[in-house]
Each structure stands twice: as C-alpha cells, then as structure tokens.
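Dear Dr. K.,

Following up on our conversation at the group meeting, I've run the structure prediction for Curved DNA-binding protein from Luteitalea pratensis. I'm pasting the input sequence below exactly as I used it, so you can double-check it against your construct before we proceed with anything downstream. Let me know if the numbering doesn't match what you have in your notebook.
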Amino acid sequence: MEFRDYYATLGVPKTASEKEIKQAFRRQARKHHPDVNPGNAGAETKFKELNEAYEVLGDPEKRKKYDELGANWKAYEQAQKAGFDPRAGGGPFGGGGWGFGSGTSSGDAGGSGYRTVSPEEFQEMFGEGANPFSDFFTTFFGGGGPDASAPRARGGRGRRQQHDVTPEYEVTISLEEAFSGTTRKVSLGGSDRERSFEVRFPAGIRDGQKVRAASEGGDVYFRVRLAPHGRFEARGEHDLATRVPVTIPVAVLGGEVEVAPLVGARIRAKVPPGTRQGAVLRLRGHGRPVLGKPGERGDLLVTLEVQVPTELTPEERRHYEALAALRTQPV
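The predicted structure tokens came back this morning:
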C-alpha cells in the first residue's frame, strides 16, 4: 500500500507546531465538510483523509511514531486487515512477528534478513498498552495494537476477527445551545437507509466533548463543535470572554459599565479609576455552566475598550483643551 504523507494532506511542513497543525486541519475541514458540500463525493473523501491525517498528527505520541516509522506505518493497516497479531508468528514480512529494521535472522524468520521483535521490544517501540492505530483505522478496519481491548466479535471462533466500533460524527451547535442545553434531531445516511437520533446536549457541554446516542441500528457518538459567536468566546473549561466599550470619563474617574451576558439580564460592573485600554474585569459566576454541577458556573471575562471620540461639540472641545492645558502645566 502506498505511503500517505499526512503532512502534505494537511498542507503543513514536518516542522509544524501543534497549533499550526490544528489550524490547518480546522481550516480545511470547514472547507471540505460534507455538510458544506452535500452530494460531493470528492469533498467527502478529502474530509476523511483530513480526519485520518489529523488523528495521527494531532496526537503528539502518534505523530512521533508516525515520524519514526515512515513508510512502515501502513504495515499496521495491512496487518490488521489480515487479523495479524504482532505477538505471534506468521507476520507479513516473511517471518515470525514484526520485521522492522535489519539484523540477523532469528527463530522461524527463515533467513529473511529480518528478525522477530519480541513483545517487550514492541512495547519499548510503541509504549506499553499503546494503540498505534488512529481512530480512522479502527473505524474502517477494526484495528488495534497488540493489547487492544475492544469487544470480541459476535459469534466466530473465539479469536478477534473484527471489533465492534461505535461510529462518530460531528455536530455543530451554538454557544447559546451549549450554555442552556438543547435537543437536536440528527439524521444519518441516505434516504433509503436513513437513521434518526434525538440527541440531548446537556448544559455546559464543551467543544470536543462527545454524546452517545442509541438507536435500533446501534449506538453513535456525536462530537460537539461550537460555532463561532459574534460577541462571545469560550475560554478554558467554563469561562466566557467578551468586549465592552467604556468612555474616557469612566475610564479616568471610575464608574460603572453595563454588560449584556450571553443569557439572562444585563449586568452592571464597576470600573476602577485609572482603567487602561484592554483592562479585563472578571465577573465571577457569570460564565458557562459546569457540566454535571447544577448552579455552578465559570467566570465572564470582560475586556474594556476605551472609546476615543472622533467628533466633539464646541463645548466638549473647550473642556478637552482646558484639560490639556492643565496637564501640560509644570507640577
């Protein structure tokens, strides 16, 4: 199987940071998402490739293994298709076990120029209990590492031939829906095999969290994505952030500013004298709900933007000129 360059798939160099990889994935995923391109098979294929690439490069441990193994990374996929157990003999490299690297033949390797990798060496290469397969591989090929713990297939001869995998889909909800909780009716599949779910997203759910939904055709995971908001931004686990204008007199002398929250009645917040541009007020208990803890909420972070008037009445101009004259006098 041809080696797939995940860096090229996401359009980033191998030296890209985690942040750059995440930004590249989100940018392209939005562009090629099936919901944005209904009926476009090419976009759907590209979206799957992007997810496969990000499942590996977005995970520091998987990325490290991918970089180390290079073209051998796909050998896992081939081995999993064949139901191969890397701890047992009969590997796909002409000998017993995995055949990475060079060395003298050992045991039943049959002089292939490769040697058997022991379970201890396998754990040293990939980490004890680690699963070198991405979720994409698991979803499509029932994959898993040497210690995969997925359920056994129903029936069969007792050996894991295929794993039960819970499919996963993304659902975008608004910040208000995540704040208050919501129920969505979600349909999957074509018209001939459509499956519908009533999915309940609880108050306080965060971006990236998953909700499990059941149906006659099997369970499905729905991963939450928060849609961008015009006035608010989710911060941390439970906080919200917004910006509020403040006049020069209030910034200089102190006073109050009115804040419109995401949900609920307006809040009056105190502004201390001598407030600078960009100062942040923390309004405790006015952020997002804490999932599973009714009545508990994060904080609302309010960035103050000092407003400089662009047009002055004659009287205002006289006052500013008088103030300027006072400020320029020697102390």
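Two things stood out to me. The longest strand covers residues 239-247. The radius of gyration is 29 Å.

Best regards,
J.T.
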